[in-house]
TrEMBL record:
It comes from Demequina capsici. The lineage of its organism: Bacteria, Bacillati, Actinomycetota, Actinomycetes, Micrococcales. Coiled coil: none annotated. This is FHA domain-containing protein. PROSITE patterns: FHA_DOMAIN. It comes from the Bacteria.
Length: 173
């Protein structure tokens, strides 16, 4: 073997080692600092239009995700909402409208759950023909409606519980 080929092999091996080190650092960084919170929706409109803040009745605790904690107003009680009954976000509620709700670990999801058994885009809850449906989005550990694993979209009725790892979500009307 010539000296040039040995030098090229050494450089290739060195590049491979550095890519492994940088990948390990990136994984450690994401584990230490968690997911990045992205401000969406209500947060931007409140900053752009100062009068919109004075018209709000109650400020949400997590403006970007629509997740609310604490007491629920009488207006929200009449409409359907998703309540977190166990897990790290216990007590939080998500009002359900006409758009689908994404549940997962990614910062782009509507309901962000920091759980090792939750995928980045775990499941989707969406309205269809006057009822709510739940669909697993190919998660590793699965989505359970009661004790049944969800694969295809299935109806999700008030009072039923979805289990994702240590987190339970209940549909309330």
């Amino acid at each position: 073997m010539s000296q040039l080929s040995i030098t090229l092999l050494r450089l290739g091996f060195l590049l491979l080692l550095w890519s492994l080190v940088l990948t390990a650092i990136a994984v450690l960084r994401s584990d230490l600092y968690g997911t990045r919170v992205v401000t969406r929706g209500r947060g931007r409109t409140a900053r752009q239009n100062p009068d919109a803040r004075s018209q709000k009745q109650a400020a949400p605790s997590r403006a970007g995700t629509g997740v609310r904690t604490g007491a629920v107003s009488t207006k929200e009680r009449t409409s359907a909402h998703l309540a977190v009954t166990s897990g790290p976000l216990k007590g939080a509620t998500v009002p359900l409208g006409s758009s689908p709700i994404l549940v997962g670990r990614a910062g782009t999801c509507t309901l962000v759950i920091e759980d090792d058994y939750c995928s980045s885009r775990h499941c989707r809850i969406f309205p269809e023909e006057g009822q709510w449906m739940v669909e697993d989005l190919g998660s590793t550990n699965g989505t359970f409606l009661g004790n049944q694993r969800v694969d295809d979209p299935v109806p999700f009725r008030p009072g039923e519980v979805i289990r994702i790892g240590a987190t339970s979500l209940e549909l309330r009307s």
